[in-house]
Specification:
heterotrimer, A alpha/beta (320), B alpha/beta (340), C mainly alpha (269), A: eight-stranded mixed β-sheet, four-stranded antiparallel β-sheet, 12 strands, C: 10 helices, elongated, disordered C terminus
Chain lengths: 320, 340, 269
């Protein structure tokens, strides 16, 4: 069983003369055969964390481990022998393919980089495209001539080409119509089932994450504020932010305008340039008390298998 | 009888604030398409003041084109036919200048990307002042005080200071509030919102949806909300119109449509939109898929037939017209037979 | 290809053809005195464009001058673009200290006007054709470097570049195989300008008598004709028009090439 893990990840950027704490001490793991949903709003650090976990960005401190061995070399690049084991699926397939190259060349790039010959690569690319439900003849087309759904399938084929154990998917269905979205999500679920691939699914869309994730981690301003098995969290979101997030998602019910549901959060997530003292959520928190302004909460375990960073997590009651 | 102009509030007797009859939009021939493309095909719709009508569809359904046609924002290559009634006047038959004046006064538009509809080099206050100057003859201090009250009404805190901000200095949610204030400035009866909350974060989207619903209730405007997200439509709309291949295929009260969608396409959309269905233990529940692609408008037979699980020969031969069905209308030969 | 692209291609084709066929079209040394001096154009069928102040055939000089202009233009631009693309790619892709150092060097070269730098180099090392080419190349690579760097800076953030890194390509392979080709589109337009500028600088050096004295150059012809500009302006006008047409042709072709390199954007409908 393979496990990709992030341990104590910090990532700081310089913005002029100020420091931006994009990721501020996060632990996260994905095991093979598991779908982990990483949720948060823009600027919460989820994409930075995902990029670090695949070696596209280096942490300021902390390590990424694969099967308990460091994945990254001291210079921040991925160990060559391990590179193929963790792959990334990007959000916008039209951006993640070189517009000048055929789809087949891009999908085959990991194979060519690994030393596979031209003919063997062509045959393997055809197999890979068929494996994600695409006509292998699309290999000769340019990315601009494929639909978003087709190209995202090709992107998944490219990620599968090196034979990874873990796929990190960064908002892979964010810009897609619902019918296409379902096809892509089903494809990911099939991969998990048929090949035992572990999936880290980064998304702002709680509805999607709730449908496909076994475990979730909710991020706010660079920290994980609630994490654990998916169903218990949605049954009883203990962090007020998770609760508000769940209450913000239209569920298909028509009771919204009748004024039902959870009180709205005021304002918007602050910029990670000025992280509030104490609990970083307290300025928007509907239940914050004096302690929250000064005392930064750490993740505490709650049964069953949930961790919450909130002083008032005990007060949560099951959603109606 | 009381003059409606004096009370300004005759909700029940109010005629439609906006009504479309047989609206058709065709884009002119290009290199790719020799005959041009029919984007909107024979749409009838009406919305009253104080009412939210959501138009739901996927990309290519023609929903945004329909909205732009109402707003008069389509390029010249688009041919618009049919009637658009605003404020009890048919405007498509009017001279272009007159039409633009009525639209500017009676219709406000909110786009998906507020950054795109606000001018980056002018303060947001100046931009709203300008609208007030053109449509309500307000200038200088008078305009600014109305601008500030508009900003306050859309929930922008500290409006006097924020009016002096440039768009890039505001967060995405605040920019969208400013765009809504600008859309309200001329005092319109109809607000057209094109995916107005799609680009926003979940918690901010909820705030802006609340604001729109509140404005409809308090200001008595009619809101036409175009969205790809049936769940968003269900949350805020009184009535939902589902568009497919340029046509309305079902239009019914939101509660009815969500509880018992009658058109097989509405059924498929609802299955994809409902997010919170717990999975059975240990088994992946496959998400309902809708294979195939949406055709262009204007083919033979029902445009949904090639993807429809219920399609019979008749569906492929004869296009169904909208017919009354449980408090609304549905265009389907087998309406109500699909199981969700 | 656009109509202006075709016009440029025809112009460039004529230029190349004339340069290649010079020994056939105008056999012998164009610097030989063949007739009486200052013969006006269109008066003697053997010398259609007349003769210059020393009685040399103007047409033969124009034909051989095309060779010099083309050699200098292409060689200098090639050098400038190779150096500029390499420096720009490394600076933009590697960033950090490498970028700072390379960009300071680039700016140092750029603060000296191209022509002055070329003038200084040729004065110091002698007026041979090779030195002229070298001088022009050295003084014109910074523009390419800055352009490529700017392109690379925006391209290296692209997701498809990240995708290539995920595929396991090393940083140098990513920089030169994934990023640089995307940056070449604006460079293609710059090639036209650089070739044109090189032709112009060579002409100017020749005008000042600082190009290879044993070769005919359009700039040198202008310099020679200057003294008789009132009596026989064609001696200045003819080579001047040649310079202008050559520069126009290469820049039109450069623009057309840049348009061709732009990625296909036909989306599925």
């Amino acid at each position: 069983m393979t496990v990709l893990g992030a341990v104590g990840i910090h990532r700081t950027f310089h913005a002029g003369d100020r420091l931006v704490q994009a990721v501020d001490g996060v632990d996260l793991s994905v095991a093979s055969g598991e779908v982990v949903g990483l949720i948060g709003e823009s600027g919460c650090g989820k994409t930075t964390l995902a990029r670090i976990m695949v070696g596209l960005d280096r942490p300021t401190s902390g390590t990424v481990v694969l099967d308990e061995r460091p994945l990254l070399r001291p210079d921040g690049s991925v160990e060559r022998s391990q590179r193929h084991r963790v792959q990334l699926v990007f959000q916008d397939p039209h951006a993640s393919f070189d517009p000048r190259r055929t789809v087949g060349r891009s999908v085959g790039l990991p194979l060519r980089a690994g030393g596979m010959g031209r003919t063997a690569t062509r045959a393997r690319v055809a197999e890979l495209l068929e494996g994600v439900g695409l006509d292998p003849r699309l290999a000769d087309r340019h990315p601009g001539t494929l639909s978003g759904g087709q190209l995202q399938r090709a992107a998944i084929a490219r990620a599968l080409a090196p034979g990874p154990d873990v796929l990190v998917c960064d908002e892979p269905v964010a810009s897609m119509d619902v019918s296409v979205r379902a096809q892509i999500l089903n494809l990911l679920l099939d991969l998990r089932r048929s090949r035992g691939i572990g999936i880290l699914f980064v998304s702002h869309d709680l509805g999607v994450v709730r449908r496909i994730a076994d475990r979730v981690a909710v991020m706010y301003l660079g920290r994980v504020v609630e994490t654990g098995a998916s169903e218990p969290i949605w049954r009883l979101p203990r962090h007020p932010y998770t609760r508000a997030l769940a209450g913000s998602i239209p569920t298909g019910s028509t009771t919204w305008r009748a004024g039902m549901g959870v009180p709205r959060l005021e304002g918007e997530p602050p910029s990670p340039v000025d992280v509030p003292p104490g609990c970083r959520f307290h300025p928007r928190c509907p239940i914050a008390i004096e302690r929250c302004r000064v005392d930064d909460p750490v993740l505490r375990p709650f049964p069953p298998d949930v961790q919450v960073a909130c002083h008032l997590a005990e007060l949560a009651t099951p959603a109606g | 009888m009381i003059d409606p102009a004096l009370t300004g509030e005759t909700r029940t007797a109010d005629p439609a604030a906006l009504e479309l009859r047989g609206l058709r939009v065709r884009f002119g021939p290009t290199d790719d398409t020799q005959q041009g493309v029919l984007a909107v095909d024979d749409v009838d719709l009406g919305v009253r003041r104080g009412e939210v009508l959501a138009i739901v569809g996927e990309s290519g359904s023609g929903k945004s084109t329909l909205l732009l046609a109402i707003a008069g924002l389509l390029p010249r290559s688009a041919a618009v036919e049919g009637e658009v009634w605003l404020h009890e006047r048919e405007i498509m038959g009017l001279p272009e200048k007159e039409r633009a004046r009525i639209r500017g006064r009676r219709v406000g538009m909110v786009f998906q990307d507020p950054g795109g509809s606000l001018n980056p080099v002018l303060t947001v206050g100046t931009q709203i002042d300008e609208v007030l100057g053109v449509h309500r003859g307000l200038r200088g201090r008078a305009a600014r005080s109305v601008t500030e009250s508009l900003l306050a009404r859309v929930g922008v805190g500290d409006p006097a200071r924020r009016a002096d901000a440039y768009p890039h200095q505001l967060s995405g949610g605040l920019r969208q509030r400013v765009a809504i204030a600008a859309a309200l400035a001329a005092g319109p009866e109809v607000i057209l919102a094109d995916e107005a909350t799609t680009a926003l974060d979940a918690t901010v989207q909820a705030q802006v949806l609340d604001l729109l619903v509140e404005l409809v209730a308090n200001e008595g405007v009619a809101l036409v909300l175009v969205t790809h997200d049936l769940a968003v439509a269900a949350a805020v709309a009184d009535r939902i119109a589902v568009m497919y291949a340029g046509r309305i295929v079902e239009e019914r009260p939101a509660g009815e449509l969500m509880a018992r969608p009658a058109h097989p396409y509405s059924v498929a959309l609802r299955a994809a939109a409902l997010p919170f269905r717990p999975r059975a233990d240990g088994v992946d529940e496959r998400l309902p898929e809708l294979p195939g692609r949406m055709p262009h408008a204007g083919g033979v037979g029902c445009p949904f037939a090639p993807r429809c699980p219920l399609a019979v020969d008749h569906c492929r031969a004869v296009i169904p017209e909208l017919a009354p069905y449980e408090m609304g209308v549905v265009a389907c030969w087998r309406a109500g037979e699909a199981q969700g | 290809m656009t109509r202006s692209g075709w016009i440029g291609a025809i112009g460039l084709g004529v230029l190349v053809g004339v340069a290649l066929l010079a020994p056939v079209l105008a056999p012998g040394d164009p610097l030989d005195i063949v007739a009486r001096a200052l013969l006006p154009p269109f008066t003697d069928p053997r010398f259609p464009l007349g003769t210059d102040t020393l009685g040399r055939d103007v047409l033969a000089q124009v034909i051989h001058g095309a060779r010099v202009s083309l050699i200098v233009g292409i060689a200098a631009a090639t050098g400038a673009i190779l150096v500029g693309a390499a420096v720009g790619t490394l600076a933009g892709f590697l960033g950090g200290r490498v970028d700072s150092v390379l960009m300071r060097v680039t700016e140092a070269f750029q603060t000296v006007p191209t022509f002055l730098l070329a003038l200084a180099l040729v004065s110091a090392f002698g007026a041979s054709l090779a030195n002229v080419v070298l001088a022009i190349a050295i003084s014109s690579w910074p523009a390419t470097a800055r352009l490529v760097r700017a392109e690379v800076l925006s391209l290296r953030q692209r997701e498809y570049v990240d995708a290539a890194r995920m595929a396991g390509l090393g940083p140098i392979a990513v920089a030169f195989r994934e990023v640089l080709p995307g940056a070449l589109q604006p460079v293609a337009a710059l090639v036209g300008i650089t070739v044109g500028a090189a032709i112009l600088v060579e002409s100017a050096l020749a005008f000042l008598g600082l190009s290879d004295a044993n070769l005919v150059s359009w700039g040198g012809m202008i310099a020679d004709g200057r003294s008789v500009i009132r009596t026989l302006p064609s001696l200045v006008v003819i080579p001047g028009v040649c310079v202008a047409l050559a520069i126009l042709s290469v820049s039109l072709v450069g623009d057309a090439a840049a348009a061709r390199l732009a990625p296909q954007r036909q989306h599925a409908t």
